[in-house]
Design brief:
alpha+beta, five-stranded mixed β-sheet, five-stranded antiparallel β-sheet
Amino acid sequence: MANLIHIAKSFNGTNLNSECKGWHRCQLPCTPNEMAQARNIILKETQKACFEKEHSTLSASKPIPKQSPLQKLSPVLQNGLISVGGRLKHSEIENVEKSPVILPKDHHVSLLLTRHHHDLVKHQGRHLTEGAIRAAGLWLLGGKRLVNSVIHKCITCRKLRGKQEQQRMADLPPERLKTCPPFSYVGLDVFGPWTITTRRTRGGQAESKRWAIMFTCMSSRAVHIEVIESLDTSSCINALRRFFALRGPAKQLLSDRGTNFIGASKELGMDTSLQKYLTDQGCSWEFNPPHASHMGGSWERMIGVARRILDSMLLQNKVQLTHEVLCTLMAEITAIINARPLLPVSSDPENPFILSPSMLLTQKSCLLPPSGDFLDKDIYTKQWRQVQALANQFWTRWRQEYLPTLQQRQKWTVTYRNLQVGDLVLLKDKQVGRNHWPMARVTATFPGKDGRVRKVEVKAWDQGCVKTFMRPVTEVILLIPKD
């Protein structure tokens, strides 16, 4: 608009610059007078389009009708613009703040002005944006809603302060709800390391590190811990072999995408005899998406319990760790975790049995044996009944008392919009600051059985090339929806 005013002046000869004549693209900046004229013309046309009746009424010096949205503002006509009359006529503040120009919130000009002043305050909140608009001599009807809408849709604000996507907590997977032998469905993860003394030398002591792999039964919640010497694939495979030898083959293994687990699964696929063994047993290995530790919460919680128990043991005993001592401590930690009650301990004297994983693993009720004389033949005639009774009691109470405690969702109870193919998102990266997080495009979604999307595939520009990543929705921030 200012450029058109400049060209119009060049036609009627009122332009002071002799070089500017006719239609041209002037390289000189617009003067403040031209900018003020352009502003007034735009504001007048906006008011005429939205407040035509009020403008004609004020031009005729008639009072504004009560039905008008401007009635409470006591509008006046100043320089052809409808401004706020109000009660500050005799104040000493600037005229632009005393009588700001009234604009509707639904007009495109109001939207552009709000975006402009929001950018001037460097994408701060509603309070600062409204202050900048008012200081510029503008009064937006329903301005709070308009400012909120602009901030909500602002891409820069989403980059700076947008929240990661969420989704309603999924239903429990079938392996958590099945009555099956212990360690049929197993979640595993590595934790550590610990520094141990390997041997004594003349110069001191040679030290090395040890880690541990925790295997967690998805149904009975029992755990098994194996100590490993390194994080490479061979140590992981050896731990798996020991676990299968002690606890029997598993039907399914679940883990995160640790490099040792990925390598172990590939090694298992390359080993013909072991692959045949896994195929015969119907064992499969499934991985959670990268950066999705919350999807393995059922076994991540057990690692936290094991760490706290080990810290207490090391604090009380203050022993020097060796490989043998560490293995012994891990065995004791396993026994403590497996003896934990799965339900609150009952105060009913008729129900003294504690429902714990060890009740199923050891076939012991953790109670003293009853007094009385038992013959040798009773071992062969009655012990199998006692073992079967304990197993039946565990699974009966597991179904009737433990499963109902898993019914309620403790968090993530609200259903959100599913991410869709084509959405523009911001990819979270803990290695760099938020201002350097890359933008990505959703290329594929993976809905769960309930139809809710909790992991997506995205393409992002990384290190000079386009790369594809698999991420949970909690690691992305929606910038621009597809629609």
